[in-house]
Amino acid sequence: MACLANSSSVHGALLLNRSAVASTSYHQLVFNARSHKRKFPLQIRADSLKSETQDKLSRRQILTLGAVTANLLILQPNQLSFAAEVKKGFLPVSDQKDGYFFLYPFGWQEVIVEGQDKVLKDVIEPLESVSVNLIPTSKQDIRELGPPQVVAETLVKKVLAPSSQKTKLIEASEHDVDGKAYYTFEFIAQAPNFTRHALGTVSIANGKFYTLTTGANERRWGKMKDILHEVVDSFKIETR
User: Fold this and answer.
1) Which ranges carry the PsbP C-terminal domain (predicted)?
2) How far apart are CA 149 and CA 171, in angstroms?
3) Cα separation, 13 vs 155, whole angstroms
4) In whole angstroms, what is the distance from residue 92 CA to residue 105 CA?
5) Which pairing describes strands 180-190 and 118-121: parallel, antiparallel, or unpaired?
6) Which of 39, 92, 135 is closest to 230 using CA atoms?
């Protein structure tokens, strides 16, 4: 089994990727009625508040539905199979050019980061984000680079965090989707003033090495982990 760290072509690509991802990390840094006479008016006020609350909820539901509908309407017919997998509270990204799909939490906004194919982040919590990176490769399958532990360890230490951060790989595993192998892993990257708890998934197809990473501040991991697992688990590549 080829070792990721010893592959000269992949090592060069990883160094290029490292520069881009490190830029992303620093970008993110730069970047929550007792009397009888009062019974009747209080009832009216209660009814009024109830009506106002229902009104606000209805408007929010309409806006959410509108956003979801808009995303679905721009999808091409052959992307609808991906769109059918959209879950409540999430919106889809379906990139027909590069052949990938994933879900992200409603409310995150897209930002442009040099070296990344797609980045979306929370406007209040800058460490809550998802990014997709693509680099060309001559490999045909992620397993050609080595087992999950080896590949994930190399990515975490050399690509997905700046060298100034202390990293720890928590776990790495392999799973299969429609006959394609994916490696999924969990890691922590510790900087002097924050710790990011993150998830990643990688695969190879269409002559490209695909990397999706998402994460959150360690202090919010308990609240965000299920949401971020949904993001990682939703990532799929369409073979051309």
Assistant:
1) 88-237
2) 7
3) 11
4) 9
5) unpaired
6) 92
Q: How many helical (H) and strand (E) elements, i.e. helices and strands, does the chain have?
A: 5, 10
Contacts of 16 by beta carbon, 8 Å cutoff, 6+ apart: 135
Q: Of 116, 104, 129, whose CA–CA distance to 28 is shortest?
A: 129
pLDDT in tens, 85-137: 678 999 999 999 999 999 999 999 999 999 999 999 999 999 999 999 999 99
- What's the pTM? 0.69
- The neighbouring-strand residues paired with 179 are none
178-218 per-position pLDDT tens digit: 999 999 999 999 999 999 999 999 999 999 999 999 999 99
Q: What is the mean pLDDT of the chain?
A: 77
